[in-house]
Each structure stands twice: as C-alpha cells, then as structure tokens.
Amino acid sequence: MNPARQQALLRRFMAFRSGALPDRAAESVRQPASVYTDAARFEREMAILFRERPVPVGLSCECAEPGSYVTVRLGGVPVAIVRQLDGSLRGFVNACRHRGAPVLSGHGAGLRSIMCPYHAWTYGLDGTLQSRPLEWGFDDIPKASCSLQSITIAEKYGLLFAHASPGVSIDLDHLLEGMQTEMAEYGLEQYTHFETRSREWSFNWKLVIDTFTEPYHIPALHQRSIAGDYDFRNSIWDGFGLSQRTVNFRTSIDKELAEKPEAERRLLPHTTIEYFLLPNVVLTHQIDHVELWRAEPISPGRTLVSTSLYAPEPPHTEAAKRHWKKNLDLLLHVTETEDFPLMERIYRGLASGAVRELIYGKIEPALVHYHRALDCLLAEARR
Fold first, then answer.
1. What is the C-alpha to C-alpha distance for residues 47 and 61, in angstroms, rounded to an integer?
2. Are 270 and 183 in the same domain?
C-alpha cells in the first residue's frame, strides 16, 4: 500500500480518536438463522456462488514455477490448477477421464506429467491424455476424447480465480470493483507461499467469514490472547461495490503517531487489513506478511477451513523459517482454540431451531455488507 494511502487512512483513524463516530452500517439487521442452516439455501449457494461465478482460490505464488499446482473444490467440484511450461495457467476438473479418480492432491511442484494413481493414465500438463496402460483395451475410445475436463482460470494482481466451467470470460477488475488499485500496491505476485494448513469444522461456511468482519468480539472472546494488542473501537471500513476492506489497528500505532511526523508515518506494521473476496475468502495483510483464509463448504454444517501464510521473500535461513512458522502457529492457536470452537457451538444452537434470528449491529458494517452482497448475488441469479 503506497505511503499516501497509508497516511490518508491514518488521518481517518485519528479523527475517530478525536471524537468522530467510527465507520458503521446505515442500520442494524435481523438475520434469519435459516441463512446458515437451510439445506435448500445451501444448495443455491453452491450452485450460484461457487459454480456459476468466479471464485478466489489463492495467490499466484502458490504455483509460481512451471510444473507446480494447487487443488481446491468449487462448490463440491474438485479442480486442479497447473502452471504450464510457458508460464500460463491451466485448470481442470480434478478427475481422471477413466474412472474419476483425482489425478492430483494438495499442492506441489516439479510435475513433468500428470499420472492418475488408480490405473496410471498419464496426462500432459495441459490436460491432454498421453498414454494409458494396455492401450488395446481402449482402442475404441480415442485418446483425443479423453483429455481432462477444462475449467477457466484468471490471474491478475497476484490473485488466482477459477470458474468451474470452461471458456468463461473472467474480468477481475470488474469483480474487484475498484479494490484492485489497493491490492496491486502490495505486489502479491512477489510473495512466497510458506505453508497452508487445513482442518474441517462443524459449522456453516459463512461463520468463518463472519468472525473476520468485526473486531467487536476481541475484548471478550480474545481477552486471554490478543485483546491487549488491538484498538477494537476505531476500525476503518470501506465498500467497493459488493467487495469491501477493513483496517483494524494494533495498539502499537500509538508510538508511530507520537514519534514520527505525518509524512513518515506508516500504518502497515500496526494493522490487520482485510480484503473480503466473494464469496468465501479473506485476504489479510498483517504486520509483515499476508494470509489467506478460505472457507470451503462441505455441507450446511460442515466446512473445510484452509489458512495460507505468504512471506515477502523466501525464508532462506532456519531463523526465517522459525519466524513464519511461529506466526502461523499463533494464528491457528487463536482461531482454533477461541474463534472456531465458538462457531461450532453457535451453529449447534442455530441448527436446533430454537434460535430464530441473529442481529448484525450498525457497529458491524462489514458483517452487514458481506451478507447483503451474498443476498444480492443470489437474488440476481433468480432474474
């Protein structure tokens, strides 16, 4: 983020400190509990939000070199994204054309070809079928008709988006609605993927995003961990069409403001800045690194949460590796012992039928905006 933008955001923060009301929603919202529990709603979300529109899947640096790859699911559709020898990206449904076995798993590098682990059907990096053992047993099925099924990939600003269908036009500038100007300033394509960790939880996927939308919960839920590090009252919120960004300030900002003249002040080392990429990703710049939190829906009450940490440069030394591992350990210790266990208990209450609605307050503008954005996308699909 360029210095002028950082200083402008700092001036807004200082205005809050001087008595101006912090950013807030126009009104509070009563949200039906069924938004999280209804099976029919969940199926609409899978179809409309995850299969019929582009979905953020990660950063370019996760598969930067030819032969590197990542795998994800888009509304239940297994996909693989592979960097080609010419530097472009290709995406496929991650299922062998023989018997449907996944041909890749997790993420990795150094591929020269793609071999199915079931019967060793072998594909090129571009998805074309190259060979299959005992070819005579399939001589009535042309190899040319057995390429991996293509999907659409878009890459820009260091971001990767995927669409479950082939040949779809993806305009990332249109999707980001102005937010790309800020995101380009981070140079995300220059970052290094350090590690991704994933874990399944028993709650609706939207509850993952909800917990990142507001710092209002920090003094209570995180009183024994990070509460002392944050000024939870004075967050900045900005909408970019259906997209949005929040800036949450750490208490270390006080020293920055007290000791430096305005032209030299920087907010990045003292903030957690979150970009909400619809429908299911939070991209975070935190102090000295970038994180990506991705909620992969499995069922109305089951979600795979993946957390990726990206460093601004490769960790060549053991000390650097320990530093980034400690950061990721801390992130997951807080979310996996405080945030997500509470989300499981919340979901059980919602699923019981006894809790009819939730309240999103004006003090939670990102939460209100996020759910209105999802509702807007679902409503548009009905027209």
1. 28
2. yes
